[in-house]
From TrEMBL:
SUPFAM superfamilies: TPR-like. This is Tetratricopeptide repeat protein. It comes from the Bacteria. Residues 1-11 have a biased composition (Polar residues). InterPro entries: TPR-like_helical_dom_sf (IPR011990). The lineage of its organism: Bacteria, Bacillati, Actinomycetota, Actinomycetes, Kitasatosporales. Residues 1-20 are annotated as: Disordered. It comes from Streptomyces brasiliensis.
Amino acid sequence: MASSTVTSSQPDRPPRPNVAFRQLRGRHSPAEFAALVRRAAREIGERVSCDARYVGRVEAGEIRCPNYAYERVFLHMFPGRTLADLGFAPRSSVRGRAARPAGDAPPSSIMSPVFVTGETPGAFEPYDTQDPYDTHEHHQNHENHEESDVLRRAFMTGGGATVAAALGPFGLTIDAAAADRPLRRAGSGEAAALEEAVRRIRLLDDRHGADGLYRRAAAPLRAAYELLDAGATRQTTADRLHSGAGELAISVGWLAHDSGRFDDARSHYAEALATARMTGDPGLEAHAFCNTAFLARDAGRPREAVRAAQAAQRVGRELGSARLMSLLALREAGGWAGLADRTGCERALARAQALFERGRSDDDPEWMSFYGEAELEGLEAQCWSTLGDWPRAARHARRAAQLQDPHFTRNIALYTAELADDLARGGHPDEAALAGMRVLDLLGQVQSSRIQTMLAATARVLLPHRQASGVSEFLERHATLPRAV
C-alpha cells in the first residue's frame, strides 16, 4: 500500500475543506478557474497543468499545501496574500518525511511509488515539480516533469526504452516479482494512482499527440484491470477503480483512434462501455458512446455514429451538463454529415450551439476540459467539410485555430490541417500552402497519424497547383516527412 513507502509525521485524518480557496474562486466554475491558473502561470513563466479536478482536490482539502510551482502561481494571482491566507497548511507540517538513504530501493508495489504517495500525508503531491526519478526531498529546482525536454524527446522519438522510462512514473505498473502471486486488495492510493494515470495520458496527448503514447499506455490499462480482479478494500474504492479503469480504456482507445488503429480503438471503447454497464455508471457510459460515435464517423460508418451519439444523449441527460450534451449533439451532427443529410446536420449543430451557450457548470465531466469554443468551431468545420461546403468549413477551422489555448498543441495542429485542406479544396492553393506550412512547423512537437493523413490528402489536392505561391515549397517540405506508421 501507499503508506509503506513513506513515514508521515501526521496521523491519518479526514481532509478539512479549504473554505478560503473556495471563496477566492468566486463565481467561476472549477474548469474556468483552472484556466485562470494556467494563464497566470504563463504570465510568470511557470508551467502547471491545472484542471477542474485539481481545483476540486484543493477545495476538498486533499492537497493541504501546493507544490512550489503552484505556490508561485497562486501568490502571483493573489498578491499580498500568504499560503495561509489561501487556506493552505505550512509546508513543514505537510511534508514530515525523511529522505530515503541513497542505497535504499522502494519496496515492491503494484503502483509506481511516485504516484501512490500523492494521496499520502507527508508525501509529494501528484502535481509536484520534483524529478520523478529522485526520491529525495531536494526537488524544488527541478522543472515540472510534464513539460521537461526529456519527456518531449521521449514521446517525439517513440523509442521503446525512452518512452517506457518517461511513462513509467505516470502510469500503473505491475511488479514483475509479484506477477505469480495474488495481488493485494486495492485501496484509495491505488484508485488515486489510476485516476492520475488517466490525467497524465490525456495531458501528454494534448501536448504531443497519440503516436508515441499508444503502445506504452497499454501497460497501465492492463494493470488497471489487474486491480479490478484483485478487488478493493471498500465499495467506494471499487467504484473509483471501475470508473478509473473505464476512463483509462477510453483514453487508450483514443490514442489508438488518433493513431489510425481503428479496430484497437473500437475494442477499447467497447471495454469501457461494458465496464460502465456493469457498474451502472452513466457518466462513463456517455463518454464511451461519445467516443464510439466519433470513431464510427472517422471509420466511415456514419449511421452508427448517429446511433451512438443519440445513445450517449439518452444516458447523458441525467448528468446535468449542458456542455456534455452540446458535444454529443456535435457527434450526432458529424454522423448526419457523413450521411449527406444536411438538414439533420444543421439541426444537430443548432442544438449543440444552444447548449454550449448555457455555459459551464460544476456537473461538466472532468474529461471534457478540452471542449471549449475552439473545439466547437473545429467540429463544426469538419461537418461542413464533409458536406462539401469548403468556404464555410474554412471559416470555422480558421476560428478554431485562432481560439485554441496554446496548451492544446495537438488541437492547434489539427484545426490548422483542417483549414489547409478546406482552403485547398475550396480553390485557394496559396493560402492552403501557408496553413500547411504552419502544420509542418507544429509536427516538430506533435505526433498524430490522423493529422499526417489529413496533410497528405491536402498535398495531393495541391499537386496540380505547384505554380501557385508557396505551394511548391510546401510540397517539397511535406515530401521529406517520415511516413506515419
